[in-house]
Amino acid sequence: MCQPERRGDRRYGAAVPQLVPTCVWRITPELIVALDDRFGEPVDAYLNGSQVWLRDDGPGGLTLEWRLHPVAGYERPAELGTYEVFPTVALAVGTGQVPPVPPERLWDGLEAFPAHGDEVEPATLASAAAAALGIAPDLAGLVDHQVIADEWERSRGGVSIVDRLVAQLTP
Fold first, then answer.
1. Which residues contact 129 (CB under 8 A, 6 or more apart)?
2. Which pLDDT score, from 0 to 100, does residue 109 have?
3. Rounded to 5 degrees, what are φ and ψ at 27?
4. Is residue 34 in a domain?
5. Strand 64-70's sheet: what is its strand order?
């Protein structure tokens, strides 16, 4: 007896892509300083190098997830704990000191998207995100997070999430 396909169940064919409005910034020292100045320390940091802020600064107070994505093959600096990486690097960059590791060797860029799957037009999201961060995004549009997540998982973190986002956002 054949069971009906459940959402996300790929045994019976490809799942229907869910497109998510998103904004992307490539990593720059100015981006690190803006994140630190405007958002402060991340609310969470992951072993894989991701740094996350959840903030209600989307259109109409919508909660946005701001995620600083690690480079492919991210390795945490041995002298820093998981929760020390961003504040230490941001402080060094913001004060003109030499960080223990240059930001571009840790992170590829920043992504902002509705945290709870809310629908919003990409241009409206980009405008609100630019106002919150003080820097306009490099790209905005709709992406399929699942395709990127699947590839990242298969490669065990060996691909750049930001490169995959950019590829989907670039015509």
1. 23, 57, 58, 64, 112, 137, 140
2. 98
3. -65, 135
4. yes
5. 44-45, 51-55, 64-70, 107-114, 19-26, 139-144
- What is the per-residue pLDDT for 160? 96
Q: Which residues face 109 on adjacent strands? A: 26, 69
Residue 88 lies in a domain: yes
Give me the pLDDT at residue 12, please: 56
**14 in any annotated domain:** no
Could you give the number of structural domains in the chain?
A: 1
- Give the contacts of 57 (CB within 8 A, at least 6 positions apart): 64, 128, 129, 131, 132
- Record the pTM: 0.89
Cα distances from 136 to residues 53, 93, 119, 127, in angstroms, run 17, 20, 20, 8
User: Using CA atoms, how far apart are residues 43 and 129, in angstroms rounded to an integer?
Assistant: 18
Q: Is the residue at 9 inside a domain?
A: no
pLDDT of residue 171: 81
Work out the average pLDDT over 145-156. Answer: 94
Closest C-alpha to 20, from 71, 56, 64 = 64
pLDDT tens digit string along 96-125?
999 999 999 999 999 999 999 999 999 999
